[in-house]
Amino acid sequence: MFTTSLSTFLLLQATSVYSGKEHIDGACHDPLHFGNAPCDKSWSIRYHMDVPTETCLAFNFTGCGQNWNNFGTALACYEQCLPLDHQICPAASRGHKTTLGEEFCREDGECGPRKYCNIGGQTFGQCCEDDIRAKIDSDYNPKCARGQSVVEHEVNGVATKLIGKKCAHNFCPHGSRCVQGHFFAACCL
User: Fold this and answer.
1) Burial, 167: exposed, middle or buried (Cβ in 10 Å; 0-12, 13-18, 19+)?
2) Angstrom distance (rounded) from CA 117 to CA 95
3) Spatial contact of 171 and 187, defined as CB atoms under 8 Å apart
4) Distance of alpha carbon 182 from its chain centroid, rounded?
């Protein structure tokens, strides 16, 4: 009887902690931790899983006192935190059924007005909202001042835009300007 009660308690507790995000690896649910200060190590750009948006985002880490949700690259973060075949709408926004009531789509026309089929690497996708995609695109491509562009970060020869959750996470390089968007922030230099 005690075993059943304990296992039921643990299941309920896990469900309340993850609330629909069980597919994200447990350690990736750790809260963002910028590190401890003072610290005798160099600050560096690291990545964390932002559970609400299911996106790996940059932050400035002190170099001391990290938790498990702290990765050297966005790729390492995604590899550790999400299943390889995980499919979501941008910023983990709500997916919609097709106009025929199906869970998955193969083309935009199946999704109805103001929606598109987000296929992402699979042979099928999920109907997602156009306006959220537009907001994400504007977050990743903010209007920088004349002569400036969005800062990219190179890892293993691959350049990707340096994107964080909030400007307050201090992830932009010295001399650049942080631009806060709808869901994410980017840097202009």
Assistant:
1) middle
2) 10
3) yes
4) 13
Predicted confidence (pLDDT) per residue in 77-96, tens digit:
999 999 988 888 999 999 99
What does the alpha-carbon distance between residue 140 and residue 183 come to, in Å, rounded to a whole number?
10
- Give me the pLDDT at residue 81, please: 96
- Cα 34 from Cα 11, distance rounded (Å): 30
What is d(CA 62, CA 72) in angstroms, rounded to the nearest whole number? 13
- Residue 139 phi/psi, 5-degree rounding, is -65, -40
The model's pLDDT over 27-54, given as tens digits with 9 standing for 90+, comes to: 999 999 999 999 999 999 999 999 999 9
Angle at 173 between CA 168 and CA 176, to 5 degrees: 85
Q: Which residue do the tokens 């902690």 mark?
A: 17
Q: What is the pLDDT of residues 108-134, one digit of tens each?
A: 999 999 999 999 777 899 999 999 999
**Cβ neighbours for 30, distance < 8 A, ≥ 6 positions apart:** 67, 68, 69
Nearest 5°: the CA angle 119, 142, 156 is 65
Question: Tokens 């840097």, residue?
Answer: 187
Q: Is the dihedral angle over the CA atoms 24, 28, 32, 34 positive or is it negative? A: negative
Tokens of 43: 């600050």
Residue-averaged pLDDT of the chain: 89
Angle at 170 between CA 78 and CA 180, to 5 degrees: 80
| Amino acid code (one letter) for 133 | R
